[in-house]
Amino acid sequence: MQYIIKTIAALSLLVLPAVSFSQSTYLPQGSKHQQFLDRLEIMLQRNNELNLTTARPLSRRMAAQIGQMADSVQTNGVYMLSPVDQYNLRSLLMNNSEWVDGDKSSFASKKSIWNTFYKTKANLLEVDTKDFFLALNPVIQQQQSIESDNDERIFVNSKGLTLRGLIAERIGFSAYITDNQERGPSFVQQRIIQYDAVPGVGFYKDFKTTATDYIDARGSINFTAAKYLDFQFGYDKNFIGNGYRSLFLSDFGNSYLFLKINTRIWKFNYMNLFMELVPQTVNISAGNKLLDNKYAAIHHLSMN
Questions:
Q1: Which of 9, 78, 108, 303 to pair with 202, CA 20 to 30 A apart?
Q2: pLDDT per residue as tens digits for the range 54-80
Q3: Burial class (CB in 10 A: 0-12, 13-18, 19+), 294
Q4: SS3 for 52?
């Protein structure tokens, strides 16, 4: 299986981009725009794109197209978006501007920094030329809280970068990397001790005795080999199902190496997912440890 994954990936990277169509990166897992897209799915129940969202993440191109379509249908009086919906729609389009048609002048900042940074409201650094698009943003999170019957602070401290880009609208790429220090509530600390695993992440080390320190690094490249055939190769997470968690394939575990082939035609969506998996995590503070690999192939067919 390992040989098959690497062979298919190598051939795909060498051959398919040369004949690819317009390609998009994907919305990050847990994106704030996912709830708005779920709401549109309820409103626009006959939309083929929205009714095939069991396999995620969704492409940014599709999200922008759905947003523009929802805006145009609203102006025709089919249904009305609330002020909150309109705010979320504008945020969706502004954060996926590379796939928005028409006038995008309203996305520009009133005043940029040194005529380089924050030229648009959505991105710290954005380059948008004929054959190249790049958006780069910082990732900063600082969270502090207290817990009953616990004298220690509960905290999350994350800092890093995220970027995405397009080359000649044929190859898409994205990356996300953060350095994190975290002390969870007591039940999370007990789980880490019991399973030698920090939920949702990979390698970690001890930090201040009861906290953890880890790096979260993900990335992928994407291309479309035919009008209805999308390829993604990377190290990240996937989700199949509905709701916050899924018993089929959730994003609760660590990221993994994968090759995904997604075929979407009419009311059908067929996804092939080939994965190389390792144990969810290991405490590197304890020294070197040999990890066993395992492999999985998932085939998922959905119909609207």
A1: 9
A2: 888 888 888 898 888 888 877 666 678
A3: exposed
A4: helix
